[in-house]
Amino acid sequence: xxxxxxxxxxxxxxxxxxxxxxxxxxxxxxxxxxxxxxxxxxxxxxxxxxxxxxxxxxxxxxxxxxxxxxxxxxxxxxxxxxxxxxxxxxxxxxxxxxxxxxxxxxxxxxxxxxxxx
Length: 117
Fold this sequence. Notes:
Number of domains: 2
Structural class: mainly alpha
Largest sheet: none
Distance between the termini: 11 Å
Order of helices and strands: HHHH
Mean pLDDT: 87
Low-confidence stretches: none
Radius of gyration: 18 Å
């Protein structure tokens, strides 16, 4: 980890930079989950449409809703495109979640931000 203020490498996992004294991480509000994994899981064309990123972050209620809508959409898409009624909202939802994950604004089940790549 590097200090955002002075750029000096911080050994171990300190709370303050040894070079300039800047606070490195607000540990109480940062999730140990990977932001990269959540971003990849949230990609709409990958597993985002099935709520994998929400399962990963521990938000099981909304993950189950996304999974249900994704399965229902793909199961009924052959009936004159009926499944698109379910898939398009799920794709939009997962795209918004992808943007939140990449920007570091996504939270886990304990409302901690996913900051670590």
